[in-house]
Amino acid sequence: MRKPAFVRQLLLPLLIGLGYWGGCARPCLAAITNVNIIDFAFSPARVKINVNDQVKWTWTGSSAHSTTSGSGLWDSDIHGNGFTFTHTFDTAGSFPYSCSVHSFMTGSVTVQGTNSTSSTTAPLVVHISGNGTVTPNFNGQMLMLGKSYTMTAKPGPGFLFSNWTGSATSSTPVLMFVMQSNLVFQANFVPSPFGQASSTFNGLFFDPNAVSPQSSGSFSLVLTPTGKFTGKLQLGNARTHTASLAGDRAAFDGRQNIAPQAGQYTMIIPGTSGSSSLPGGDSFATVTVNPAGKIKLAGSLADGTKLTQSAAVSKNGDWPFFVSLYGGQGTILGWLTFQTTPTNDLSGDLVWIKPGIATAKFYPAGFNFATSALGFRYHRPATGSTLFNFTNGTLVLDGGDLPQPITNRIAIGANNRVTNLSSNRLTLTFKTSTGLFTGRVVNPATTKSLSFNGVALPDAELGLGYFLGTSQSGEALLGPP
């Protein structure tokens, strides 16, 4: 039905003031699109509106959230149930956003322009502070107003990305923004405290007040120039424990930085004489250190347990010595130091723990043995020469359930061939490439053979090791008369 003329005359000024006349031509009243923030989601997550329209977010869940623009255009701060926040979009483009508390909660607002709005551009200014790059670098380029863009900051060698500053701030390398007039961004890079190459750290952890296999072990950690790290622990059978941890950086690369400790060593862990509850023989090992400071140990404990370890020496010559024993129920550990002194080239205190094992042939009651390690550089003798300066010597086996020591006189000839000078049968062989020795001797009390083994310590003019008796170990001592 056609409106009377006087009605049209009354409505005309009002419609013109509101922008209506035969349809909507801007300016119009802003439309409001509602988005609910339920627990851990925006609903709806994606909306489309027109320029100058509004989006109203309403908090309806029980958890605290925010609506935060990815480009810094708006931020509601964190609120709870019942709060509302409204933002007016006066520029066309796509505007992603998320919850600052729960980053997996994301949404987007797409703002559509009108035919009457002409596309315009503006220059972007991008500054770089420190050693790094920005990709793509839009500095000085004319960008479309209202359009979304992304730039990624990448640090150069020896530097870390710090943050974005300027028209927007962000601590993440990827910066998303909607182009507006007079935007200025700066990517900031700072020197890395971690150096330009990956570093390896090695160390020990244990309770200094009460060392036990359940709360002790070794660790290795690799730190990258970006501050990221990976590591591994070697420990006993406990799942949780509290312990002190100490480590040091592996400083040698074997090329430009050669480990001064590089070479071969022979080492002993002395036993204790006169005790039936602790090993009486001397545990022994051979040690090699390569130019990169990598340590390889192989040896035998004086209860017959094999001993191996791979580790790294620190710049100060420290060695985190740790071997898990007896199926994770026991351990031997301590800090050893490579340092040439008048008496040795390698030393340190150790703790050797063996649990009670009813089926064990040797020391079934177990023990907690505070001992030490002592080592010397080992140099393979030249062809025709001998390990020791003495030619005539003695081999003595003592302890280990023997009623009395067994002593054999020997002569060491060219190429370290050993001749037995006693009536008691003896064989003794040196492995000159490593310094190890092995042999057998007849026990005069029983006429049965006993096996023994150990290492030569030429700088000390000694050879030390152990033999196994009925339930105990004894010492094998090789030296001058």
Briefly characterize the structure:
The protein is mostly beta strands. 3% of the residues lie in helices and 49% in strands. The protein contains 1 helix and 36 strands.
Description:
The protein has 1 helix and 36 strands. The chain has 481 residues and is an all-beta fold. It has 5 domains: 30 residues, no CATH class; 82 residues, Immunoglobulin-like (Sandwich), CATH 2.60.40.420; 71 residues; 179 residues, no CATH class; 88 residues, no CATH class. The strands form 8 sheets. Strands 24-23-22-21-28-27-26-25 form an 8-stranded antiparallel beta sheet, with no helix packed on it. An 8-stranded antiparallel beta sheet has the order 31-30-29-36-35-34-33-32, with no helix packed on it. A hairpin with a 4-residue loop joins β33 and β34. The N terminus is likely disordered.
Strand content: over 45%
Ranges where pLDDT stays below 50 over 5 or more residues in a row are 1-28, 238-245
* Residue-averaged pLDDT: 85
How many individual β-strands?
36
Q: What would you report as the Rg, rounded to the nearest angstrom?
A: 40 Å
So what's the overall shape? elongated
**Main sheet, how many strands, which sense, barrel?**
8 strands, antiparallel
- Main sheet: which strands, in order across? 24-23-22-21-28-27-26-25
Count, helices: 1
Domain tally? 5
Give helix % range: under 10%
Give me the secondary-structure category: mainly beta
Report how far the terminal alpha carbons are from each other.
135 Å
What tags apply to this protein structure?
single chain; Immunoglobulin-like; mainly beta; elongated; disordered N terminus; 481 residues; eight-stranded antiparallel sheet; 5 domains; 3% helix
